[in-house]
Design a protein that fits this description.
alpha/beta; Rossmann fold; Alpha-Beta Plaits; elongated; disordered C terminus
Length: 351
């Protein structure tokens, strides 16, 4: 649905987006993650055509956003972090106005689309009220409703739950899941639990670069993160522990508790390996009935921190290495070696 190739955006000397390449598939909810200053909002502004890239291409449903801007934008509904609302308008007036701006032709068609968008976002009860009199949560809903006008295939939401109370956050997440059934949704957030709750795919940005793309549960395995299995079985602790350690793929295991004829073991497995069936089978063959067996899912927080911290360390190492090389070049011994090489080279001072 969206194809991004070598996307770059510079603001003077500042590189906000650095050579991004990724694809957003149709019918999925994508979460765009990253620390503050990672380039999330800039990327979304580029995807919507609000700003132009320094380099690279963006294609939305087959339309190049620079060569066919109107066709590309018609495929996108956008909610910026600060919804562009007019507080002196009613919800109805604003949605009709937004529909006209989007090029929805025909008064009856605009009215029908505004009513449908209001119904989908839970605004029917406040349809005739002034926007200035609405709560923060309802204002966010108005912003989402305007994004739905024109029947876009892609909905882009920039920090859709910012400033909402817990109850409003839950309602907004429910709405996003509902939108994901009929639209491709791309939302940005720095709240990991929010992305984990509603998104099937995650893009992680760090310093304007794409650090990772994939399902939350698969990113840990891709990074070599060990799996963890917790098992409780009947039997002597030493026997249960030895059985679990003997399962191929188990890299380490320790006895965590032993009482009343039950033993609990935590096993660390090879990255991406699901050894629950093998562990259960081995314990059953050893005569140790399994009472409980669970595997820890990939922790998006751990993945996020590992990726963003490693990118930051790499960025800090580059200027340090350059400074070290420059300092080494200025050492007296290095200068003498350079002079000696110049003297012995063809055309040097020694000839």
């Amino acid at each position: 649905m969206i194809e991004v190739s070598h996307l770059t955006k510079r603001y003077g000397a500042h590189l906000a987006v650095d050579d991004l390449t990724f694809t957003v598939e149709q019918g999925c909810i994508y979460g765009l993650l990253g620390p503050n200053g990672a380039g999330k909002s800039t990327t979304m502004n580029l995807l919507t055509g609000y700003i132009s890239p320094t380099a690279g291409t963006i294609t939305v449903d087959g339309h190049d956003i620079l060569e066919e801007p109107e066709a590309a934008r018609a495929c996108i509904g956008y909610l910026p972090e600060q919804p562009p609302l007019y507080p002196d308008m009613t919800v109805e007036e604003y949605l009709l106005f937004a529909a006209e701006l989007k090029g929805v032709r025909g008064r009856a068609v605009r009215r029908a689309q505004a009513q449908k968008a209001a119904a989908r976002t839970g605004l029917a009860d406040v349809y005739g009220r002034l926007i200035r009199n609405l709560s923060k949560g309802y204002r966010q809903r108005v912003g989402v409703a305007q994004a739905l006008l024109g029947s876009p295939k892609v909905i882009i939401l920039d920090e859709p739950t910012v400033g909402l109370d817990p109850a409003q956050v839950i309602e907004m997440r429910r709405l996003i899941r509902e939108l994901g059934r009929t639209h491709t949704v791309l939302l940005s957030s720095h709240i990991l639990s929010e992305v984990q709750a509603v998104c099937s795919q995650v893009l992680i940005l760090s310093h304007g670069k794409l650090a990772a793309l994939g399902a939350p549960e698969s990113l840990g395995a891709a990074l070599g993160r060990q799996g963890v299995v917790h098992v409780t079985a009947l039997g002597e602790g030493s026997r249960v522990l030895a059985t679990v350690r003997g399962v191929p793929g188990v890299e380490n295991a320790e006895l965590t508790s032993q009482q009343n004829g039950e033993a609990s073991v935590t096993a660390h497995t090879a990255a991406g390996a699901d050894l629950r069936a093998a562990i259960s089978g081995a314990l059953a063959a050893a005569g140790c009935a399994v009472l409980a067996l669970t595997a820890e899912a990939a922790d998006l927080e751990d993945v996020f921190l590992q990726l963003t911290e490693s990118e930051a360390a790499a960025d800090e190492a580059e200027p340090a290495q350059a400074a070290g090389a420059e300092a080494a070049a200025k050492q007296p011994g290095a200068a003498q070696a350079d002079d000696a090489q110049t003297d012995s080279a063809p055309g040097g001072k020694g000839e």
